[in-house]
Amino acid sequence: SRGQSLQRECSSDDAERTPEVHQL
């Protein structure tokens, strides 16, 4: 995720990192 995690284009990368923008 490069900041724009809301679009979830890199779910694999976001899965390793903690939900920053996904917790809207």
Q: What's this entry about, in short?
A:
This is Nucleoporin 93. The protein has one helix spanning 11-16.
Instruction: Give the averaged pLDDT, no decimals.
Output: 59
Number of DSSP-assigned strands: 0
The topology string of helices and strands comes to: H
Q: Report the total helices.
A: 1
- Portion of residues within helices: 25-40%
Low-confidence runs? none
Strand content: under 5%
The largest pleated sheet is described as:
none
Distance linking N and C termini: 15 Å
In terms of structural class, how would the helical and strand content be classed?
mainly alpha
- What is the molecular shape? flat
Radius of gyration: 7 Å
Protein name: Nucleoporin 93
Biased composition (Basic and acidic residues): 10-24
Region (Disordered): 1-24
Textual characterization of the structure:
25% of the residues lie in helices and 0% in strands. With 24 residues, the protein is mainly α. The N and C termini lie far apart (15 Å). The mean pLDDT is 59.
Write the layout of secondary structure elements.
Layout: H1 11-16
Biased composition (Basic and acidic residues): 10-24
Protein name: Nucleoporin 93
Region (Disordered): 1-24
